[in-house]
Amino acid sequence: MQATFDFLSYYLEYATSVFLHFADPKQRIFYVYIATSVLAAFAIYLVHRRNGAQGTEAEGSFLAFLFPKSVWQHPSAWLDLRYFVFHKLIGHFLLFGLLAFITTTCFRWVTGQSMTSIPSNAGASTSLLLTIGYMFVTIMVGDLIGYTAHYLQHKVPILWEFHKVHHSAEVMHPISNYREHPVDNLFYTLSIGAGYGVVIGLSYNLIGYLPNTPTILGVPLLMFLFNILAYNLRHSHIWLRWPGRWSMVFPSPAHHHVHHSCHPDHFDKNFAFIFPIWDVIFGTYIMPEDNRDVKFGVAGMKSMEMDSCWKLYSVPFVKAGRRLRKSLRTQSGKQAKTGQQK
Question: What total number of domains does the chain contain?
Fold first, then answer.
């Protein structure tokens, strides 16, 4: 009975936190990140107005530019709002704490010690160069692991059926970021958690402790900067790309817009989460000058396939099951044919 009470209390605390995401610096929709994205959108609006906004969404007021009817009268936009609550309160809760568990498990596997028992460098004269180096290495390697996991989510057919949920959004706004299937979350969490655990463990084995990375409002410095630099325009209708080759180095909303595009030239491009350089290195980078060919959604998918919270959860299981059965039948047929030839 006590265990049930503890679980319900824990869940109630978690459920309450879902509706406080706007006040939590660790969440993408923290009000400061939203505010800086709105400021960036206003700057883009002014540029459009200066260059001639005739026939564009910048032709009217800034409010109309920020909340266009083409987005907010679309069923996909409102489905994302409903799904945010549905997914957070049900599916996401099942993964709560998994990232920390996997990270600490892999750390123990690499070092033979618990993360809670490792010595801290608090008060130690750690060199600034070492701290900066550790900060950049961990986030770069973590992003490479994220790139690899994301690549597999697109290239492995069964994983794609679950990742397709995120790409099924036909219009985007910041809450669209949370249109993810629990299985998709699980795969990505396992990948990132294991990767970070190994990287942090190797760092500990090398220098004997873990440097304290600088934070702002409890968020690692580089992640805070990433979030505050118009992160929420990544899932939006507002196009922002950096000039020239800067887009190959620094993340821009346009980089992710192209990834969500169903145009044939944009298929399986721009997998990197933070650093586009991984896409450049592995040949998956593309950055058009404008967004005239960018259209969100999954090519060939009808809107009705995933037009409810329940379908966003259930349809991937059905389609993944079909793929698996087809693969097993094909494999069985090949084995039978090989046996007959012998």
Answer: 1
